[in-house]
Amino acid sequence: SQQGEEDPQALSIQEGENATMNCSYKTSINNLQWYRQNSGRGLVHLILIRSNEREKHSGRLRVTLDTSKKSSSLLITASRAADTASYFCASNAGNMLTFGGGTRLMVKP
Amino acid sequence: GAVVSQHPSWVICKSGTSVKIECRSLDFQATTMFWYRQFPKQSLMLMATSNEGSKATYEQGVEKDKFLINHASLTLSTLTVTSAHPEDSSFYICSASGSGGGWNEQFFGPGTRLTVL
To answer: N or C: which end of chain B has fewer CB within 10 A?
Structure first.
């Protein structure tokens, strides 16, 4: 399959709670990226973590990468209703991005 | 970051019509452009990769005669869905990658929604 795996497929939380999404990929990578997509809209690049990095922070986002397990996680802290969207990981090997199946996050006010 | 545009944003057409979608890199030269398709509530699936001046490389299962890709310049790639049918209705997203940079970042267009009646 072209895609990696993401779990959960859907996540519903209350505003203020943390949201964690996991991603697994299949091949060796140069970096792994996370994107957000609001319904019917284009992709928004959130954060990139390189293969030699283990953790990265950007505002309320925290990304981890475990290359031995070929997995990554995205943590959104203190979630807001505006964080409601689909989140995709994309593994970069050379000049190709392979997307995971995505996690649909709903943050209830 | 670099800007990639797509035109049109949304197109509705009758079955059998051929539809052309444009992808432009507005402020950089895109040596490589990618075309993705996304069905509702699904992830992006890479359809093809095109390098400027070369024939596109199609992913397995993507019909090259149905999805014609032209990348004639460093700022423009087009995807033509020939004789579109309702099952071709989808969200088509392009991305562009320029030369240079350690890892060739891809910049995504806003997508084109195709609805075939």
So the answer is: N
pLDDT in tens, B94-103: 999 876 444 4
Q: Sign of torsion, CA B41 B43 B47 B51? A: positive
Task: Indicate yes or no: CB of B43 within 8 angstroms of CB of A97.
Answer: no
Minimal CA separation from B95 to chain A, in Å? 10
Q: B6 vs chain A: nearest CA distance in angstroms?
A: 11
**The amino acid at B3:** V
* Residue B33 pLDDT level (bands cut at 50, 70, 90): very high
Q: What is the 3-state secondary structure (H, E, C) of chain A?
A: CCCEEEECCEEEEECCCCEEEEEECCCCCCEEEEEEECCCCCEEEEEEEECCCCEEEECCEEEEEECCCCEEEEEECCCCHHHCEEEEEEEEECCEEEEECCEEEEEEC
Q: Do A97 and B91 lie within an 8 Å CB cutoff?
A: no
> Tokens 């996304």 — which residue?
B38
Q: What is the mean pLDDT of residues B82-102?
A: 85
Q: Which of A40, A41, A97 sits opposite B106 (nearest CB)?
A: A97
